Automatic annotation (TrEMBL):
<feature type="region of interest" description="Disordered">
    <location>
        <begin position="1"/>
        <end position="44"/>
    </location>
</feature>
<feature type="compositionally biased region" description="Basic residues">
    <location>
        <begin position="1"/>
        <end position="15"/>
    </location>
</feature>
<feature type="coiled-coil region">
    <location>
        <begin position="97"/>
        <end position="156"/>
    </location>
</feature>
<feature type="compositionally biased region" description="Basic and acidic residues">
    <location>
        <begin position="33"/>
        <end position="44"/>
    </location>
</feature>
<keyword id="KW-0175">Coiled coil</keyword>
<protein>
    <recommendedName>
        <fullName>Zn(2)-C6 fungal-type domain-containing protein</fullName>
    </recommendedName>
</protein>
């Protein structure tokens, strides 16, 4: 077995470089390619070549992550498998993991942008609400002052009305007594022979009594007639 491996190795050493077609078939189709035979030595050589022409993966595949391996991909992007999965001859989910992660990052950034926009709208609405509450408080305060003043004016009006009615009641109580006393004085003067159209100054009373007028006014005459008749 070892002799055959040595013999094949000597034949391989005559080739100047690894065929590009073999590299492409390995990266594109993986371990099983129809019509071609993949040997351990070919895999090792291709892995060695790819190792020198590879870059670290931004996101390791599941195998490399679990086994704490360095996950590397070829720098010409000829394969969807990392070097460790090429060496093992297994499928690789490195590209799929990175693609999924990129989609998640894009979705997260989109949600963060939407969150920021929603936050800005909340701040704007909060500011408008505060202004509305301030205007509402000012209007309610003004309404309260107006109603207090209106209440005081109404109370003052009621007080003045009550006072005015009391004054009228007093006058109504005084006037009959004054009128009765006036009639008594007129009758007394008549009994003394004082004429109705008396010139008060002719009695030596002075001019200050000229505004007294006739002895009987129409009201007094009617009242006195009633008194005399009575």
């Amino acid at each position: 077995m070892s002799g055959r491996v040595t013999k094949r190795s000597s034949k391989k050493s005559k080739k100047p470089i690894i065929p590009q077609e073999a590299i492409e078939n390995l990266f594109d189709s993986g371990d099983e390619v129809s019509g071609r035979r993949d040997t351990t030595e070919d895999r090792a050589s291709l892995h060695r070549f790819a190792t020198k022409n590879s870059l670290p993966a931004a996101m390791p595949c599941t195998y490399c992550f679990k086994n704490k391996k360095e996950c590397r991909f070829d720098d010409v992007e000829k394969s969807s498998r990392c070097l460790e999965c090429v060496r093992r001859g297994r499928s690789c989910d490195g590209v799929r993991v990175a693609s999924t992660l990129n989609r998640l990052v894009d979705q997260q950034e989109k949600l963060e942008a939407q969150e920021e926009e929603a936050g800005d709208k909340v701040l704007i609405l909060h500011k408008e609400l505060m202004e509305l509450q301030s205007s509402l408080a000012e209007a309610v305060s003004r309404l309260q002052r107006i109603r207090k003043i209106k209440k005081r004016v109404k109370e003052r009006g009621a007080e003045l009305f009550e006072r005015g009615m009391q004054e009228l009641d007093k006058e109504d109580n005084i006037l009959p007594a004054l009128q009765s006393h006036e009639e008594w004085v007129v009758n007394d003067l008549q009994s003394l022979g004082v004429p109705n159209d008396i010139d008060w100054a002719s009695l030596g009373l002075g001019d200050e009594f000229n505004d007294v007028g006739p002895l009987k006014s129409s009201g007094v005459g009617e009242s006195s007639s009633g008194v005399v008749g009575h």
